[in-house]
Amino acid sequence: MAEAVMGPLLGRLQELALSEVKKLVAVDDDIRSLHDKLMWMQAFLRDAGPRRRLQNNEIIRVYVRQIRDAVFDAEDAVDQYFLRVDISMLRRYSDAIIKFFSNCTTQVTVRHTLSSKIKSINTRLDGIIANKEKYIIDDEAARTINPWKPSTIISATAEKLDEDLELPLVGRDDQLENLKNKLIKTNLTPMVISVVGKSGVGKTMLVKDMYERVPIKSHFDVQAWVSFAPNLSASNIQRLILLRLTGDACPKEELERKLSGELKEKSYLLVIDGEVSSTEWKYFLANLPTDNAKSRVVRITHTKPEDAQVRGFGHDKIELDHFDEDTTKRLFLETLFMEDRSERHNNGHSSSAAAAKDERRVKEAKKYAKLVFRVTAGLPLAVVLLSGLLRTKEYPGEWKKVFEHLKLRSKESKRLDIILSMCFDDLPHDLKSCLLYFAALPLNTLVRARTLVCMWMAEGFLRPIEGKTMEKVGENYLKELIDRRLVILPPVENAAPGDEKITVQTKVLEFLLLEAQEANFVEIHSGDDVPSLSTARRLSLQNHRDKYAALAKTLPKLRSILSNFEKDEPGNEGETKEEDKLTNIAEPNSCLPGRKGNNTHHKPKDLIRKLLQVSEFLRVICLDGLEVGDELPSEIGNVLHLQYLGITSCSLQKISPSIGKLKRLQTLDVRGTKVTTLPQEFWKIPTLRHVFGSLNMPNKRVGKLEQLQTLMTVKPADVWDENYLHNMKLLRILYLRELTDQTMLSLRAVSTLKYLLILTISHAKMILGELFTSIKLPRLQVMVLQGELMDATPTKSRYSNSNLPNLTKLSLEGTKVSQGFIDRLGDMPCLATLALYQNSCRETHLVFSEGFQSLKNLTLDSDLENIEIEGPAFPHIATLEVFTRRGEKFCMVIKGRNDDIVKKIKIQEDKRDSIYKSVPFEVKKYSHNMCVSIVRIIPVYV
């Protein structure tokens, strides 16, 4: 893994060569010599990965290991230099002259130290190069590894992948029908349905397809789907389900009571996507209500369920296996050419030349269908990965080479590993480190796309390319990985760009873990034994039984630390105090004789303080669900190289002012904590790019923040005026809340934000109607408004499509807009998703007469009683969802050729306390010189 080892260091060496250290000529020469040697070695390492897997050459392994160790030492030397210089610049002296000479002396000292270390590393690398020649490591042999040229840039399809193309479900019609019958057929007791099969056969995809169907949603009162890492406790599974149902967490002692209250006497559908121990599974089922025989629990698992049954539940299973040859061929062709079909569907036609080319490609692919079955053994995951690889290859030349390579290796046993290796080795070099980062995340963990890109940026994996920001480069890298089917992007309703959550499939993660282990990319603490971590550079905490055990170790080389735990339930003060007493970790060697005082224990906050004191090279801190105390220790100011700080889902309340020392900090994320204000020193950090949390902006002026791109979610201070955002010209994402009469006028300042992509305003008393009339936001894609719009009826003379030419998603709640405003929305050229929630409209009667030519998804609120849709409106509608409280009074009239629209309708009625349930409805057709459909709710619920 050349990029994981070399990439960040080469960038740091270039930065070093341009810094003050060049004043020492000898050091400058040594740095350039080291840089040149590393570039040659980087080229060798890029070929070493594929060769290592095919040839199993121990000499190559030793050579790679020696290079890696030398590179790590060089990285330590460079980071130590920058750290000492940064520390010297922070020291405060009362006398400026003393400060000047002190800094000069310090910097000369650290330069000489750096010079000595780099000379030593250069000598060491010379020896490694000599050994390479001595033991005859043949570079020419690498040419036979990949007969085609690996990708060097991301594909054109990924560049234009604005929406995820959901993979088709092929060859599972019988299992789908079987699952449907088991979900809705009449039984005497609730049922547990186990969907069983090896990893990669498509279990999750099968269940998801059925779970999202309207008839299934209409059949159950309550639905929840939870995914989690292996071996989660029953109580944590209960907490996840309750969180999905209510949006609220609760103390452990109240979990069973509250969950039972939500499910009792209701028909529920629970999907459990994660491996659970037999003991925890039985305990989980034993605490579910069994008073409604329509209830179902669907368990997605790799292992066959035990014969032992839990009282009150019936048990059944559906087994999935590999495909036969014909189905494998169908899946391969449908996933290989799905984008071409999508483009033809959207454009309505294709040129004869393009059609002929497509036909030739299909014909070529069919020739290899039998080989595809042989090399994939009919495993759906392998087929999909292979099609993802071919989508990036030139037809027909590179296709032929890929298939020839597969044919040579088709008799090997680990067929999926062959395809995974091909997919990984073919990635552009910069993407390999990005994909490998998933190895630091637990299985079945969903991570926000934007969060991941920010961490890649802090790690040094991204750099501006061709005028694109690092964020844009990271976004394109992520799209490429999704397009290659290596990363999964589950469908998320109305998710703003970057808010999508992503993951990798189990077998892909297993492959990445092996690669990460080979490259010493990350250490994972998931068991009772804590390995030696003195040389660990990345650490992932995954031990649910003892979250803090690894932190008792000294971690001097650490660059990144990550955790992903469920948030501890609120209100457990007693349990927290007990954790302070008992969930403590003894110092290493505490049991050795003759060591007095080593039997002491440490509270979690003390371990965090120790981490910040010792691990001074940290660049990424991403601690999710790990308690750090009420206040982040002042030692946070010690980690001067920190670029990403995420402390989320915990009881943190206060950030130390010493955070202002972090002059390289790019991202702060305190979502899910009690932090509402940040010290004034924080807002003066010049490198800030992304701030996430629920924060109150300070009453004093903030710094220039010229690099800031994300501000989410903030309450404007009283001093917020039209000039407050003046310097934040690169702001792309802005979430505001609780606008007052005094701060409302500051919205005019957004007119200066020409790069703004997402604007959200929540819990506002009033919102300026100028957002739709005079303020121009040419790049805005998503707008979410919650609060009454002032003067919100733009007339044709005041309204121009050029104000919001790229708006694709609009959500309104409490805006009280008029019919005229809705008419004007119909003129927006790119509007694809429109949601009109409670009190969004003044009237209870709404007419869609024309326009909305790009609209695909429409959601209508609970206050509307009559809805009229006329023929010219919604030519491309895909979903039309209505939430209503009107019951039998609700009426929807659809005029014109409307069969397609009627098929897309889904109605949910408020049954109790804003809990909506899908209900059946009837459609009556009339004809008076035109087709008319009248849609009403059926008053009998089944």
What can you tell me about this protein's structure?
The chain is of the alpha/beta class. Among the domains are: 2-144, no CATH class; 173-319, Rossmann fold (3-Layer(aba) Sandwich); 323-426, no CATH class; 523-586 and 598-696, Leucine-rich repeat, LRR (right-handed beta-alpha superhelix). 37% of the residues lie in helices and 16% in strands. It has 27 helices and 33 strands. Helix 1 (2-17) packs across helix 19, helix 2 packs antiparallel against helix 3 and helix 12 (325-336) packs parallel to helix 16 (380-390). The longest helix has 39 residues, at 96-134. Belongs to the disease resistance NB-LRR family. One of its GO terms (molecular function) is nucleotide binding. Residues 563-602 are annotated as: Disordered. Keywords: Coiled coil, Leucine-rich repeat, Nucleotide-binding, Plant defense, Repeat. Residues 5-86 form the Disease resistance N-terminal domain.
CATH topology of the domain at 523-586 and 598-696: Leucine-rich repeat, LRR (right-handed beta-alpha superhelix)
* Oligomerization status of the protein chains: single chain
Low-confidence stretches: 92-98, 341-350, 571-600
Number of strands: 33
Taking the alpha carbons of the first and last residues, their distance comes to 58 Å
Mean pLDDT: 82
What CATH architecture of the domain at 523-586 and 598-696 would you give? Alpha-Beta Horseshoe
Q: Helical residue percent?
A: 25-40%
What structural class results from the helix and strand content? Answer: alpha/beta
Region (Disordered): 563-602
Domain Disease resistance protein winged helix: 445-488
Domain Disease resistance R13L4/SHOC-2-like LRR: 615-883
Pfam families: LRR_14 (PF23598), NB-ARC (PF00931), Rx_N (PF18052), WHD_DRP (PF23559)
